[in-house]
Design a protein that fits this description.
Elements lengths: L1 H34 L9 H14 L5 H18 L2 H18 L2 H17 L4 H17 L4 H19 L4 H4 L1 H17 L3 H14 L8 H16 L3 H17 L3 H17 L3 H18 L2 H17 L3 H141 L3 H17 L4 H12 L1 H8 L5 H11 L4 H8 L3 H14 L9 H6 L1 H5 L1
Helix pairs in contact: 1-16, 2-3, 2-4, 3-4, 3-16, 4-5, 5-6, 6-7, 6-9, 7-9, 9-10, 9-11, 10-11, 11-12, 11-13, 12-13, 13-14, 14-15, 15-16, 16-17, 16-18, 16-21, 21-22
């Protein structure tokens, strides 16, 4: 019966093992779907979106297209999670990435969406200020609604003021405010509103007054001031600023701004009719702009060189520079065409990225349902297995009870017989103890007689005492050891087998038994009929024969452990 039960348990064990393997494979597949090169485990939409936004931020300057992909995917996840704070951050990153790849329409759409979220929910003012600043840049460089750009620049300033919650906002956000004032000043320069331009450009330089070292915004602002002052006839101030900008940009190897500064230097020289010097500065500016492939600057500088060459009667040079103007315009047209094509490609990429994120979440959901289904199926299988096992256990229990009943009857009979045997052994043991006690008394009497014997001086008296001693020795019971050995050997057969391998005499084996029972020398003397001194001598010889030369080893303890060592 036990073998059948064991076989059934093993069968169910292997079934359960197969089930758990299936569950593990399903969970592993689900985990692989969610890894995507990042942290695995349970698909957490918010954590995944945060990881994507961090990746977008780190790739914004070096790889804006990759940053745009991460931002779009983060936006989909944030909408699915209904997390407006995360969504606003995703829209902001998407707008910035779109701006860097040249998709100004998409940038404006994303940034307006972010602005609406932050405005409606009273969001982070600092973040709102950055969104306004980015929106202003989009409207400014898109070529339409310049008034909207100025409005958003002013809103950005107000947002930074609210974010600082102090009058020292110009110190806390000096870099941001300097860029905003500089951009506003440049816009007023383009509109030839010079008084307003000077106001904002001066505020930009004031905001950066505490910053040491080179700053690109500061250099660009000074160039804009040069343009204003030269237009207003303040050539000395303009020339002084240009010297500072040329020195700083050359030292920092900022060749784009250096070419712009060279161009304005040429314009100043042209205004004062130093045409040859102006021509040289224009050529230097053109060379650096071509090296940096800034085609808008190339177009502007080449056109100025063409006009100056005409004034200097260099018709061939003027014609060459006009051709260069056409070449720069062709480059700009190709760039615009490529940008228009990239916008179409971006729309396709948006759909592709959104589908990737959606399919990833759908796969996660499907795998989750699969796991739930397998878990439910596993539960049903476990329940059926449990019912089957319980039935088998009940049948086995009935059979076991029947067999136990028979065993108990046999055990009862065995116990009864064992009890009778034990009773008999106890009676024999009591009898042995009584006889041992009598022998002990005889030994004590003999010892006292021997003491008297030594003190009696006459021979006749000694003979009488010797006769009494012999009579007492004759009445001693010398069969005690044989009967004791029979009883002890019945219950300690392993010990006697261990002694048999040591080459001991019968008297030595008998002494080993007494010592293993932890009997005193006096008790052994009573059993054997020997004197206590003879017993001590026998103990010493036994130790020597067993090789126990170390006096720290107790002979009784050694004999207690003898059976375990032999086993």
């Amino acid at each position: 019966m036990g073998i059948k039960l064991l076989v059934s348990i093993l069968r169910y064990y292997f079934r359960l093992k197969v089930l758990f393997v299936l569950l593990f494979c399903a969970c592993q597949a689900r985990g692989n779907d969610q890894m995507d090169g990042r942290k695995g485990g349970r698909f957490n939409v918010v954590e995944e979106a945060q990881l994507l936004l961090a990746a977008a931020d780190s790739n914004m300057q070096s790889s804006p297209m990759l940053a745009l992909e991460y931002s779009v995917k983060a936006e989909v996840l944030a909408r699915r999670a209904s997390d407006n704070q995360l969504l606003s951050l995703a829209l902001m990153k998407k707008g910035m990435a779109s701006y860097y790849v040249g998709n100004l329409g998409g940038a404006a759409e994303s940034l307006i969406g972010c602005k609406n979220l932050l405005s409606n929910e009273g969001g982070d003012k600092e973040m709102l200020g950055r969104v306004y600043n980015d929106l202003a840049a989009v409207y400014r460089y898109s070529g339409f609604q310049p008034d909207s750009a100025l409005v958003y620049y002013k809103r950005a300033i107000d947002a930074f003021r609210e974010a600082a919650e102090t009058e020292e906002y110009s110190v806390l956000y000096a870099k941001e405010l300097a860029a905003i004032y500089s951009n506003m000043g440049q816009m007023y320069v383009e509109e030839e509103a010079y008084e307003q331009a000077i106001f904002y450009l001066d505020r930009s330089l004031t905001a950066l007054s505490q910053k040491k070292g080179y700053d690109r915004v500061r250099a660009a602002t000074k160039i804009s001031l040069v343009d204003v002052w030269s237009s207003m006839g303040k050539t000395l101030g303009a020339d002084s600023l240009l010297r500072e900008v040329l020195s700083a940009t050359q030292e920092e190897e900022d060749w784009v701004l250096h070419s712009v500064a060279l161009f304005y230097k040429g314009k100043l020289l042209e205004r004062v009719n130093e045409l040859d010097s102006a021509y040289l500065f224009y050529e230097g500016a053109l060379a650096e702009a071509q090296s940096a492939e800034v085609w808008t600057s190339v177009d502007k500088i080449a056109l100025a060189l063409s006009d100056l060459a005409c004034r200097m009667n260099r018709q061939e040079d003027a014609y060459e520079y006009l051709q260069l103007v056409q070449h720069a315009k062709e480059k700009m047209r190709r760039g615009e065409a490529a940008l228009a094509l990239s916008k179409m490609e971006l729309e396709e990429k948006y759909k592709k990225w959104e589908e990737e994120v959606t399919s990833q979440m759908d796969r996660s959901r499907v795998s989750y349902l699969i796991v739930l289904g397998l878990a439910f199926l596993g539960g049903l299988i476990l329940l059926s297995l449990y019912i089957a096992i319980v039935r088998k256990q009940r049948l086995a229990q009935l059979e076991y009870l029947e067999s136990e009943l028979v065993k108990r009857q046999l055990e009862t009979e065995r116990e009864r017989l064992a009890t009778e045997v034990e009773d008999t052994k106890q009676k024999l043991a009591l009898n042995l103890l009584e006889r041992m006690s009598a022998n002990e008394m005889v030994n004590e009497t003999l010892q006292k007689l021997m003491e008297v014997y030594r003190q009696v001086p006459t021979v006749s008296s000694r003979n009488s005492l010797q006769a009494i001693s012999n009579s007492l020795r004759n009445i001693q019971d010398h069969s005690l050891w044989e009967e004791f050995e029979l009883l002890y050997k019945h219950s300690n057969s392993d010990f006697f087998e261990a002694l048999a391998g040591l080459g001991l005499t019968s008297n030595e084996r008998r002494l080993c038994v007494f010592l293993r029972m932890n009997m005193a020398t006096k008790e052994i003397s009573a059993l054997t009929g020997q004197s206590t001194k003879a017993v001590e001598v026998a103990r010493t010889r036994l130790r020597r024969k067993l090789g126990l030369t170390n006096t720290d080893v107790d002979l009784s303890e050694y004999l207690m452990l003898l059976v375990e060592e032999s086993a």
